[in-house]
């Protein structure tokens, strides 16, 4: 029997923070912006309800294309562990992932606020998780849009394609993983079984606007100026710096080798083009002359990129 592939999909306003040179981990930090009056983002776990057991979801929604019922579990100050996660330092592939070192602004602001790494305050942190072993890499990139960061101070600020989803993945013999969510007085666990047809186990962890956790609107044109990127700057230890904000600069020359061409998820964005259930791909957008405005939908947010921070 083949091994199962575990895919932990990371999306939205969250930080990837490497350990120091001697530490074999990356830490995922998800701030809690649920009550942010300008840019509310809800920390959550998303999985296909058919493959889950344990804690019942806080809410459910139906994928607009596959019609699968997806469960949504809220996170608030939880430490997340996975019982079968391998050991050793993960392989990190930086392609398409925004580095806060590159876009932090006029003073060093690529070190995360220490409280976010240690506090149990559920009003500040939605969740944290240590990643060991496996590989971390971009898995969904809009190939038709390029971004720059303003104010620009050099070529490292773009124009560039940006990853909207990053995946931590590894293989295991077992067909199941257990996610343990620990918080004093609010512990719970979630078992997720793999699909025996694809030998893939999928869970998505992130922080998105509530209405985008399972998207029902068209993907459409990206925001011209992405002000909610300030939620990343708010995580920085350095305050008062001049912040760089991503701006949709131009149509990209669609690349047919975007990560989602070969790294596919059933929870990822899909297209509702006639007679087609396929993820949005470079091939699909290759003939476009303007950003899409048709019925392109799926589970996952738009313009909510994870960021990599200084350890």
Explain this structure.
This protein is mostly beta strands and 311 residues long. The chain has one domain. Helix content is 5%, strand content 37%. It is built from four helices and 21 strands. The strands form four sheets. A nine-stranded mixed β-sheet has the order 5-16-15-8-11-3-2-21-10. Strands 6-7-4-17-1-14-12-9 form an eight-stranded mixed β-sheet, with no helix packed on it. A two-stranded antiparallel ribbon has the order 13-18. It is globular and about 50 Å long.
Q: Short summary of the structure?
A:
With 311 residues, the protein is mainly beta.
N-C termini distance: 39 Å
Tell me the total number of β-strands: 21
Widest sheet, order of strands: 5-16-15-8-11-3-2-21-10
Overall 3D shape? globular
Percent of residues in helices: under 10%
Q: Give average pLDDT, whole number.
A: 81
Q: What is the rounded Rg?
A: 18 Å
Low-confidence stretches: 216-220, 271-301
User: What's the assembly state of these chains?
Assistant: single chain
Biggest beta sheet summary: 9 strands, mixed
Please report the number of helical segments.
Answer: 4
User: How much strand content do the residues show?
Assistant: 35-45%
Number of domains: 1
Q: Write the H/E string, N to C.
A: EEEEEEEEEEHHEEEEEEEHEEHEE
């Amino acid at each position: 029997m083949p091994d199962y592939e575990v895919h932990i999909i990371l999306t939205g306003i969250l930080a990837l923070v490497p350990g120091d040179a001697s530490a074999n981990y990356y830490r995922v930090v998800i701030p809690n912006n649920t009550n942010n009056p300008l840019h509310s983002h809800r920390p959550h776990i998303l999985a296909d309800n058919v493959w889950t057991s344990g804690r019942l979801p806080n809410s459910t929604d139906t994928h607009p294309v596959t019609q699968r019922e997806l469960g949504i579990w809220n996170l608030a100050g939880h430490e997340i562990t996975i019982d079968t996660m391998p050991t050793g330092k993960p392989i990190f592939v930086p392609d398409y992932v925004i580095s806060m070192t590159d876009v932090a602004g006029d003073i060093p602001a690529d070190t995360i606020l220490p409280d976010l790494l240690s506090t149990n305050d559920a009003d500040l942190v939605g969740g944290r998780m240590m990643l060991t072993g496996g590989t971390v890499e971009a898995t969904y990139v809009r190939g038709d849009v390029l971004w720059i960061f303003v104010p620009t101070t050099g070529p490292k600020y773009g124009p560039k394609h940006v990853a909207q989803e990053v995946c931590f993945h590894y293989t295991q013999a077992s067909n199941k993983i257990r996610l343990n969510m620990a918080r004093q007085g609010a512990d719970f666990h979630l078992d997720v079984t793999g699909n025996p047809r694809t030998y893939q186990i999928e869970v998505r962890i992130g922080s998105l606007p509530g209405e985008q956790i399972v998207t029902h609107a068209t993907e459409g044109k990206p925001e011209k100026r992405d002000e909610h990127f300030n939620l990343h700057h708010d995580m920085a230890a350095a305050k008062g710096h001049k912040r760089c904000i991503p701006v949709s600069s131009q149509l990209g020359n669609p690349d047919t080798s975007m990560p989602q061409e070969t790294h596919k998820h059933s929870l990822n964005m899909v297209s509702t083009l006639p007679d087609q259930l396929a993820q949005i791909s470079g091939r699909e957008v290759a003939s476009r002359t303007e950003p899409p405005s048709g019925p392109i939908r799926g589970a996952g947010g738009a313009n909510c990129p994870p960021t990599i921070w200084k350890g």
